[in-house]
Amino acid sequence: MTSPRHSTRLSKSRFLSGLQCHKRLYLEIHAPQLAADIDDRRRMVLDMGKEINEIAHRYFPCGVLVAEDHRHASAALEKTSALMADPDVPAIFEGAFQFEGTLVRVDVLERVDGAWKLIEVKAASRVKSVHLDDLAVQTHVLRGNGLELNGIFLMHVNRQYAYPGGDVDLQRLFALEDLTEAIQEKLADIPPRLDEMHAMLGESRSPDVEPDHHCHSPYECPFWSHCTAAKPARWVYYLPGRKDLVRRLRQQGVETIDEIPVQVSLSHLQQRVRENVEWMSPKLAQKLHSVRYPVHHLDFETVMPAVPLYAHTYPYQPIPIQWSNHTESEDGSLGHTAYLCVEHKDPREEIAVSLLESVGEEGSICVYSEYEQYIVNALAEAVPRLRKDLLRVGERLWDLLEVLQSHYYHPDFQGSFSIKSVLPALVPSLDYGDLEIKDGATASATYHRMMYVVTDWVERQRLASALLAYCARDTLGMVELRRVLAQKAQSAAPS
Q: Which residues of the chain have a pLDDT value below 50?
């Protein structure tokens, strides 16, 4: 039963929110409408976690799921109690337990020699401190219900699993780590922390907590925009780089970037942000002229499945599923080629073949970051017969991001060299506002939906068109960025 002093019931997710920030927990319960919508990146993480949890159930044959959701907590509690009383049930999935105002759902509770093994399933590839907090509050509630636990474990994805093809080997896909001792050391802190949270939630207003680095660790807080709405446009927190400097500056009363004392040691980028003026290196023109025509502009999009889909791949290995190439000739004319895998097959060989045909053997290949180099090298290993040709492609890569970071800065970048920040500043007509897909996370989620969810061929074609348009925007953006930068360098050159 929930005691009167615990009128607001906590869950393990709410407990973790409270550990991150009391204000976050307060707003989640009393003002959830102030939270930002779940973005595609976060939705992907949640969907991946759900997928891994469901696959983990197969690790425990004959286990039984408590299907009642959070809206039917009483029914879930009753179902769990009945399953525990049945000795023929070897494992319970999503079992519900409540103790002193805290309700938890346990991923896996395995019956072992008259006692129980508590197992938390995560899509992560290693143990994190937040996992210990998660397991500690579950252990507190289970022991409060009188359960004897003979082990507390974290089951996570094993990134070293080399999938050979065929059925996935669950014994190798998952790693099971015994955290019993580590959890035991945390248990004494759980009751006072829960009491603090319950007391805080009974207040008439949210606690006054200043936004800081804790808002992004271990998870992005959905109330960041709400809590920072009144901050100045050049709030010192927006200074790029390590946040320990920002904390020291704030302790000294520095509220904006413009107030940073001149004697404070800053990185080159931080200095650019503080000066807040356009800056250009005298070597910019030379770097831009180092390309060889025809200049190709290449961008890949990838997926990173937690459970390997193709033979000889690993969990979370980036798999390229599309590319775009805008090719600029020396006379300024522009051509475009692209590839998108729309079949249920390993796309890597077809990606490699079509890419080699597109970029030919001549000209620089402009990219934006080192990621394309990584993908080209990975393709060379995955398709041995094309290895030499692909490695030669890698030797032709020319990184526009590196040129920008070393030789140009614009105040509208606001400290970020992401192409999503740079393009709107220098080529406003090519921002991503008119596209259905505006970032890589959305592209990955859209690809998954197109391949594994949508069955209507018209909708699949529409999604494919959206994916092609997004990837093409990245490569056309690089073309126009090079052109704008060349014009600026020419204008700045002495007459």
A: 1-5
For helices 12-20 and 190-201, give the axis angle rounded to 10 degrees: 80
Q: What's the rounded Cα separation, in Å, for the pair 15 and 140?
A: 12
Q: What is the pLDDT of residues 328-341, one digit of tens each?
A: 999 999 999 999 99
Quick count: other Cβ atoms within 10 Å of Cβ 64?
Answer: 20
Q: What is the pLDDT of residue 495?
A: 58
The two tokens of residue 383 are 């398709």
For the chain, domains (ranges, CATH) are: 4-200 (3.90.320), 284-492 (3.30.420)
Q: What pTM did the predictor assign?
A: 0.91
Q: What per-residue confidence (pLDDT) applies to 273?
A: 96
Distance CA 331, CA 333 (A): 6
Query: Which residues fall within 8 angstroms of residue 173, CB to CB, at 6 or more apart?
Result: 55, 157, 158, 161, 307, 315
Q: What is the pLDDT of residues 79-110, one digit of tens each?
A: 999 999 999 999 999 999 999 999 999 999 99
Give the chain's radius of gyration (CA, Å). 27
Among 390, 404, 382, 369, residue whose Cα is nearest residue 488: 404
**Distance of alpha carbon 321 from alpha carbon 477, whole angstroms:** 20
Write down the pLDDT at residue 5.
Answer: 46
